[in-house]
Design goal:
The chain is of the alpha/beta class. It has a domain of 166 residues: Rossmann fold (3-Layer(aba) Sandwich). Helix content is 39%, strand content 23%. The chain contains 11 helices and 10 strands. The strands form 2 sheets. The protein has a 6-stranded mixed beta sheet, sandwiched between helices. A hairpin with a 2-residue loop joins strand 9 and strand 10. The longest helix has 18 residues.
């Protein structure tokens, strides 16, 4: 399958601390790849590099063969990378539907003059956006149906806010979807539901790179898993291969546990 994302020897330092050290990996079309690792292992820094929040000090980041390293976040987004965040970043006073519509700003074509005059092309585009928002919200059955679409985001449960952030990220038709701990703070039933929705997104053709601590979710959806520790990739492979790798066990549980599994 064609590579969607390629990291080539990417490094990033903060002062004397190397947060990401010569990191290389590939995400192919229609894959789900998960990045795991203990806190401070460089996972979020990697996401921030890919999405343009940070510029790598060395190496390159390619999206479908084109370098996006060092581009501003809005330009990276326009190229086709959309993400969620570990800490929710919704427009809480806007409705559920409005939050999804905001996510389409980069794929609209009407200029301010045409919008002010309410030209037929603008009305057609608005109708298409509304229909698309309805379709995206429909990917979360029973969560955002009917009047719930017009609720302010602040009135949603925590789990539904996380689902809404995923819905907003889908609104721009991303080439690559970055999910930063999509089930963080959820109970097991909620986590399982979101896991099924992530599987459904892959079935619809999305390519997903995910950070997640819930190993049940990682094992349930991932084609491949990348384990990091202290900014370095220490293992890559299937979930079972990575979960049983002595370096991964040591990173999570300590050397004594790693020696016991060796």
């Amino acid at each position: 399958m064609e590579p969607v994302l390629e990291l080539q020897d990417v490094s990033m330092s903060f002062g004397g601390l190397k947060a990401v050290d010569s990191l290389s990996f590939t995400v192919r079309e229609n894959e789900i790849v998960s990045i795991i690792g203990p806190n401070g292992s460089g996972k979020t820094t990697t996401f921030n590099l890919i999405s343009g929040l940070y510029e790598p000090h060395s190496g390159d980041i390619l999206l479908k063969g084109e370098s996006v390293a060092g581009l501003r976040p809005d330009l990276v987004h326009d190229k086709g990378i959309s993400r969620t965040f570990q800490s929710l970043r919704l427009f809480t006073n806007m409705s559920v539907l409005e939050n999804v519509l905001v996510g389409m700003h980069s794929v609209t074509s009407a200029g301010p003059f045409a919008s002010m005059l309410r030209l037929p092309s603008v009305r057609r585009e608005e109708k298409a956006m509304y229909d698309k928002a309805q379709e995206i919200l429909g990917m979360f059955p029973g969560r955002f149906s009917g009047p719930r679409q017009h609720q302010p985001a602040f009135s949603l449960s925590y789990a539904n806010r996380r689902r809404l952030e995923i819905a907003r990220a889908l609104a721009s038709d991303p080439v690559l979807l970055l999910l930063d701990e999509p089930v963080a703070g959820m109970n097991p039933a909620e986590s399982h539901e979101v896991m099924e929705q992530i599987r459904m997104l892959r079935e619809k053709g999305y390519t997903i790179l995910m950070i997640e601590h819930d190993m049940h979710v990682v094992g349930g959806v991932s084609d491949r898993v990348i384990a990091m520790d202290h900014g370095v990739k220490i293992a890559e492979g299937t979930y079972d291969e990575v979960a049983n790798d002595p370096q991964v066990v040591e990173a999570y549980l300590g050397k004594r546990a790693a020696d016991a599994t060796a």
